[in-house]
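Need residues for this backbone.
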């Protein structure tokens, strides 16, 4: 099997693993046949570049989902999560009916696609334990998909490559659950490495591990907790505008342009399309810049790239909102902050800040208080760093 087993050492010490084994035993009275762990992810560079066939860079984070599995032979799937009240109960023969809007849709989708790939799953008892915040922009969905998929495939002794499994999980989310996510989430969770970022070309799926040379910096995720209603429609509108700009300029995707060319041909686009294209084209360039600076340990330079990404998202792509601006202002004001930007689709969600490791706790306390005073919303703020990707334990 080609699973990334780099997580295996020290697995016994992971309390999430112990809890997942115990949850399986206390709920279903069986021991775990296989256990797999898959982390969430944080995007560092490359905002709205993925669907323009461009570049991104991300890390797998400390927060992870752990799935413990015991096979069954009667076609039934029973599943329990420490984060969800209702347990799941369905048959592997009923999966053609599609998703029913429940937390176990991700499990059902993964099982359906694994079976279509020839993996013999004749039922299973599953226990899930996860500390990846849900809906905080760090992809809890990819984490649970990969934890399920790795543990189920291993229990069925099914051989599948890591890249193929990541793509299968993406299809489960796209086709079964009905969420149109790019490949970044599943690839980050699969191929993340401790102390390294992953650079990814979203057109070719070529990837590279980028050493994060500075250990004095930490990434802090600052979730605004603003309800996100506009996201879907605005996201689709931005995608459409990018496609239209690429069509008018006669290129396959905005990834095929550089800033100089776009400036020369600016008159071929209206003001809105030009601003959208300018964000995507400059952001692709910032991914390369940011990755080089990260590798060189130039945290001040990395912070500057992060700040310019945010300004471009705010002014040219127009996906910020008052809550994100309040969070970012609080972050930039706090001691030890190199830079801060919104991550994810925008209109809510999270700010990511690069913070000097010496003052992270103080940073979290100060930003939380300032943000709450400014907006009346209670944020969720946590620090993380680059950790190893998914693996069977
Ligand atoms: P995110 O940005 O965190 O990926 P999504 O909406 O894409 O948010 O995915 C969240 C969904 O993933 C949850 O609604 C749930 O269905 C599933 N999920 C995530 N974490 C868990 C968990 N611990 N237990 C059960 N389901 C989970
Ligand atoms: Mg998700």
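Answer:
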């Amino acid at each position: 099997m080609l699973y990334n087993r780099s997580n295996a050492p020290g697995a016994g010490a992971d309390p999430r693993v112990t809890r997942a084994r115990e949850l399986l035993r206390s709920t279903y009275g069986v021991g775990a046949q296989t256990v797999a762990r898959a982390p969430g992810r944080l995007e560092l560079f490359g905002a709205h570049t993925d669907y323009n066939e461009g570049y991104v860079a991300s890390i797998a984070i400390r927060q992870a989902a752990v799935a413990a599995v015991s096979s069954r032979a009667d076609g039934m799937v029973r599943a329990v999560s420490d984060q969800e009240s209702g347990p799941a109960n369905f048959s592997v023969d009923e999966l053609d009916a599609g998703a029913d809007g429940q937390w176990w849709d991700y499990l059902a989708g993964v099982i359906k696609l694994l079976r279509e790939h020839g993996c013999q799953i004749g039922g299973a008892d599953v226990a899930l334990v996860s500390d990846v915040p849900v809906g905080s922009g760090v992809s809890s969905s990819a984490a649970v998909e990969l934890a399920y998929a790795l543990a189920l495939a291993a229990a069925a002794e099914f051989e599948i490559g890591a890249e193929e499994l990541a793509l299968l999980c993406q299809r489960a989310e796209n086709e079964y659950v009905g969420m149109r996510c790019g490949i970044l989430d599943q690839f980050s969770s699969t191929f993340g490495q401790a102390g390294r970022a992953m650079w990814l070309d979203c057109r070719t799926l070529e990837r590279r591990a980028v050493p994060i040379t500075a250990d004095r910096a930490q990434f802090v995720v600052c979730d605004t907790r603003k309800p996100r209603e506009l996201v879907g429609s605005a996201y689709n509108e931005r995608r459409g505008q990018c496609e239209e700009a690429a069509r008018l300029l006669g290129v396959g995707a905005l990834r095929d342009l550089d800033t100089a060319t776009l400036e020369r041909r600016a008159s071929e686009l209206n003001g809105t399309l030009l601003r959208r294209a300018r964000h995507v084209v400059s952001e692709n360039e910032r991914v390369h810049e940011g990755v080089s600076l990260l590798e060189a340990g130039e945290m001040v330079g990395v912070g500057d790239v992060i700040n310019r990404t945010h300004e471009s998202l705010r002014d040219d792509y127009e996906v910020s909102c008052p809550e994100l601006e309040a969070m970012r202002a609080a972050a930039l004001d706090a001691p030890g902050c190199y830079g801060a930007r919104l991550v994810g689709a925008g209109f809510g969600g999270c700010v990511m800040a690069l913070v000097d490791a010496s003052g992270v706790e103080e940073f979290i306390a100060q930003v939380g208080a300032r943000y709450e005073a400014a907006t009346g919303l209670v944020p969720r703020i946590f620090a993380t760093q680059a950790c190893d990707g998914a693996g069977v334990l």
